[in-house]
């Protein structure tokens, strides 16, 4: 099969066989998949052969063996150099039957593919067009965290390893490397531990330490070695061709000087520059054209023309001189050397764009101190299991997320998560986060996560996903790049034809070839392909370093169009840590001691006698501990803490119910329905005044009768007023949307500078989402909330920003997560997004101006005025074009550190 007509003919022939329900033919893979009911495979084979095609049955599967389970896989793609390569890989992957979507990252050398087919078919499709492909990870599309990975070395065959591992509960898959010398077990650390997994596979495989390497390291080594090999021969060629060694040019038919030039240029052209030619040849076999096509074609034409000139001179033709032939051989060698140097510098610069991500990844320690039976031993990070007791000494990094279990006090630097270099106090029961550093004191912790379920692993996954997905502007550029190379090839042919038609002599004809070579060399689709991903790479890594996680690169584009900002109150404008400041048992609500509460000796809140006030506080606390026991709202946590401080016991309760935005309720035997939430009736004047001062007032009702009132104050974040002011200066229309009462909401709004008419109070989660939807009809909306009651509103907004701690990095509703819990981080992210888009547009402007100005000059339009560019200069300019784009992106990181 060679074209779409062939695939159509094969499909029609197969579908015409009685019993065939469907037939799908893949031109790229030279393969057909047929669904049938009891048809003999020989008949299918004959149907294909009857219309003139060769056919062979590869395998026959029973219906129950196949699976339509949607999978998401990460594939390593080697050999990509420009946007045209990205397009070629995407088209090849999307042509595989069962592939739903594919996102290819040029900078990460990574492809994220969603598919129902086999991963091996995707790898084969990538390799069939001349690129290196390898499956890295594979997981079900519906799963949140990607499975953890355990590197192993098979002791038996790969098939036996797969069979043994698949029989173990918790194993999600096995990825075996091509040479079968190593593999990775994909597993769920909640269901099976890493060390337990190795014990069950004893004799089948062993733990294998994988050395992490920068993805560009191998490319850099290859480019460096080929460049070193090409420099000396190229210098010798220049010296010989430019006449600096006249003794090598005698009067013989074939002087030794020319032989040296020819042999050395052949070495540089076909050995040092082989990577260009092999990649171009593989792309050409499948109808694709890339940057390598232009490089290979231009240097090969130059070399062959020089070789032709030498042969004609030997044969006695007066049309060619050895000087002209040497010049073209020199051009070929110099171009290869200059392009190798440019590509090496470009690869080195691109590796710096991932430096921030590698810096985050380096926070993961290689070893941890494992305590087993009161003995301490060293265990690798990959082998940590849930429930392990790990010792952390002062100055060491916390290996995984966990809980402190010793009666000790320590301070941890969690700037990796929050972006704030401040030591956080840790004691028994405190949660510690993997990747943080114990700056003072040591402790023993219990591992609560392992592998890819840790906070640090989730951060890296989010960063990687954001860098892999391409924004809309990049997709448009990739479409342009897919036509760029064919247009350049056509332009080179047109240039040659125009100048050849005007040629009066051999010198003019040579000039036409030089112009065509210059056009091929100066064209640079790489600068188009690198303009967006390098900027996104730097920006995403920089944002993560400051505690801002971007889940989708489309956000960078959207941020510039936002006009409205809707802010939640609790945990966004305020600190999200309310405290009880006033409590009152209402008249008629008796605090019966028979109810069972036991008061603590701590001083109670109230104005009555000490004993009476303690008894009333204990009664309220006794009920609150019961009714708020299942709620996760910040107010519920504050109420529980106060209740525990005044009462040692908790009421027996049942039938818990939670009404978002209204409160919680339960039933207490002997008292009936107990409810805690928004007051249902009018409040006394004293309590209305507390609301006007910014306090939140909640009511405790028993048997549908008011029982008590409690006031909680949540202090404003120190940066909230300045952040709102910055939003106003940035042109945002700022709204406050909260579930609190109007008096409280207006009091907070006035303190931070939000207009009274832009305050929405007493809003349920549905009302918040409706407000966002209404505002979105007029302008794009930015919604900022704590990710709990604001989930619907976050999902409805153009850009949803969740403010929370590092433990909330899996918030599905938001597109951006600010782990530092500071509203000021939003302003930093806004500034970074504007700078990122400016950098992208600046990169595009340079790439466009370079190509649209360089191509006409290379084609010789300025020749009548003495303006034309030699091929060697064009090659250097092309290499500098890509390098300038990458350097421009790196400057983004330097300016925002």
UniProtKB/TrEMBL annotation:
<feature type="transmembrane region" description="Helical">
    <location>
        <begin position="513"/>
        <end position="536"/>
    </location>
</feature>
<dbReference type="GO" id="GO:0005886">
    <property type="term" value="C:plasma membrane"/>
</dbReference>
<dbReference type="InterPro" id="IPR001757">
    <property type="entry name" value="P_typ_ATPase"/>
</dbReference>
<feature type="domain" description="HMA">
    <location>
        <begin position="71"/>
        <end position="134"/>
    </location>
</feature>
<feature type="transmembrane region" description="Helical">
    <location>
        <begin position="844"/>
        <end position="867"/>
    </location>
</feature>
<dbReference type="Pfam" id="PF00122">
    <property type="entry name" value="E1-E2_ATPase"/>
</dbReference>
<comment type="similarity">
    <text>Belongs to the cation transport ATPase (P-type) (TC 3.A.3) family. Type IB subfamily.</text>
</comment>
<dbReference type="InterPro" id="IPR018303">
    <property type="entry name" value="ATPase_P-typ_P_site"/>
</dbReference>
<dbReference type="InterPro" id="IPR023299">
    <property type="entry name" value="ATPase_P-typ_cyto_dom_N"/>
</dbReference>
<dbReference type="InterPro" id="IPR008250">
    <property type="entry name" value="ATPase_P-typ_transduc_dom_A_sf"/>
</dbReference>
<keyword id="KW-0547">Nucleotide-binding</keyword>
<keyword id="KW-0479">Metal-binding</keyword>
<feature type="transmembrane region" description="Helical">
    <location>
        <begin position="322"/>
        <end position="342"/>
    </location>
</feature>
<dbReference type="InterPro" id="IPR059000">
    <property type="entry name" value="ATPase_P-type_domA"/>
</dbReference>
<dbReference type="GO" id="GO:0043682">
    <property type="term" value="F:P-type divalent copper transporter activity"/>
</dbReference>
<feature type="transmembrane region" description="Helical">
    <location>
        <begin position="479"/>
        <end position="501"/>
    </location>
</feature>
<dbReference type="GO" id="GO:0016887">
    <property type="term" value="F:ATP hydrolysis activity"/>
</dbReference>
<feature type="transmembrane region" description="Helical">
    <location>
        <begin position="257"/>
        <end position="274"/>
    </location>
</feature>
<dbReference type="Pfam" id="PF00403">
    <property type="entry name" value="HMA"/>
</dbReference>
<dbReference type="InterPro" id="IPR044492">
    <property type="entry name" value="P_typ_ATPase_HD_dom"/>
</dbReference>
<keyword id="KW-0812">Transmembrane</keyword>
<dbReference type="InterPro" id="IPR027256">
    <property type="entry name" value="P-typ_ATPase_IB"/>
</dbReference>
<dbReference type="GO" id="GO:0055070">
    <property type="term" value="P:copper ion homeostasis"/>
</dbReference>
<protein>
    <recommendedName>
        <fullName>HMA domain-containing protein</fullName>
    </recommendedName>
</protein>
<feature type="domain" description="HMA">
    <location>
        <begin position="1"/>
        <end position="56"/>
    </location>
</feature>
<dbReference type="InterPro" id="IPR017969">
    <property type="entry name" value="Heavy-metal-associated_CS"/>
</dbReference>
<dbReference type="InterPro" id="IPR023214">
    <property type="entry name" value="HAD_sf"/>
</dbReference>
<keyword id="KW-1133">Transmembrane helix</keyword>
<keyword id="KW-1278">Translocase</keyword>
<dbReference type="InterPro" id="IPR036412">
    <property type="entry name" value="HAD-like_sf"/>
</dbReference>
<dbReference type="InterPro" id="IPR006121">
    <property type="entry name" value="HMA_dom"/>
</dbReference>
<keyword id="KW-0472">Membrane</keyword>
<dbReference type="GO" id="GO:0005507">
    <property type="term" value="F:copper ion binding"/>
</dbReference>
<dbReference type="InterPro" id="IPR023298">
    <property type="entry name" value="ATPase_P-typ_TM_dom_sf"/>
</dbReference>
<feature type="transmembrane region" description="Helical">
    <location>
        <begin position="294"/>
        <end position="316"/>
    </location>
</feature>
<dbReference type="InterPro" id="IPR036163">
    <property type="entry name" value="HMA_dom_sf"/>
</dbReference>
<feature type="transmembrane region" description="Helical">
    <location>
        <begin position="873"/>
        <end position="895"/>
    </location>
</feature>
<dbReference type="Pfam" id="PF00702">
    <property type="entry name" value="Hydrolase"/>
</dbReference>
<dbReference type="GO" id="GO:0005524">
    <property type="term" value="F:ATP binding"/>
</dbReference>
<keyword id="KW-0067">ATP-binding</keyword>
<feature type="transmembrane region" description="Helical">
    <location>
        <begin position="227"/>
        <end position="245"/>
    </location>
</feature>
<keyword id="KW-1003">Cell membrane</keyword>
